Amino acid sequence: MDSSAALQACEHVLEGLDVDLIQYIATTVLDEKSGKVLPREDLVEMVAPMLEELCDGDESKADTLATSLWETLSAEHGTAQETGFRKLENAVRMGGEKEEDATEEACESQYGLKSFKKEQRDAKQAAKEQEKREARIRQKQQEMAALTLELDNARKVAAAELIKKGQSGKLGTLEIGPFTLPNPGGGADLLEDASMVLVPGHRYGLIGRNGKGKSTLLKWLASRRVASLDKALQVYYVHQEVSLSDEAEENSPADVVLAADFELKLLLEERETLETQLLDKDVQGDVQGRLGEVESRLEAIGASTARIRASKLLKNLGFSDALLARKMRQLSGGWRVRRRATLWPG
Fold first, then answer.
1. Is the dihedral of CA 129, 130, 136, 139 positive or negative?
2. pLDDT single digits (tens) 25-39
3. At residue 84, what are phi and psi to the nearest 5 degrees?
4. What's the angle, vertex CA 77, arms to CA 75 and CA 89, rounded to 5?
5. Overall pTM > 0.85
6. What gap in Å lies between CA 208 and CA 221, rounded to an integer?
């Protein structure tokens, strides 16, 4: 099978996927030595992760689509596993006389040995595929947890910097870049020497084909991997999938929303520390002054009404009183994503 035929098959089965990604996939589905299609297991394992965005993150659909690609490619051209040998229906003696293998036929007919062997092979193959799917899910969960931690740490730093500078939170024009955006899957960089200007009060839409790095760019901005971003700038990234710690799973939606306001959390912690220090008679006089600054900032951000506003925000997203009373672990995926969309503070 030549590369042009492989490309045509990929374009047919993977319609809607980015053209550059289709061309790349077409170069990887053939065995370099034999020129035949890779074995199904190898092809699905390699191609499926590249199809997840096209399948809206559904790994099962991505596996099914990759399997469909393998079936289309191998239907007429065979795979690298095929040896060119076939089993003869009848035994052939050296003298040229054909004779049916009555013993094998009788065993297969009476005991179903052929179907039993096939069931064994299918079960073994299914177990391997299930094991690989579970491994990919575990890897994805680990990556999600690492990203969540990185984003939360970036927002903690931003909140601390905002408190330190005593800024009002008002933004000026953001000039970002130049920066390079590497491809997380390897290969050529997604962006080189890129720059952007964001004006406060404007809303921007990020448009591009699948696999072009839209989500990667947003993750890099939110995690401060773009060095030119102001440390005090708070950036919120809404995951398509929600990953919470075991502790957060036991909290109510409003509790989790409030926990996302790192400025409020840091100010409350600092107030508690300062109040404890005031109990010491030898405390320095600037503690009282700093406590006054913290109290003023807490009043400015509406700390006393934070829980009320968080509940109201959730209700505007459709949460009923019954849902607000539940723990996060008791909520379905759709409600968990809505909670994430609150983008507190707001």
1. negative
2. 888 888 877 778 888
3. 90, -5
4. 75
5. no
6. 17
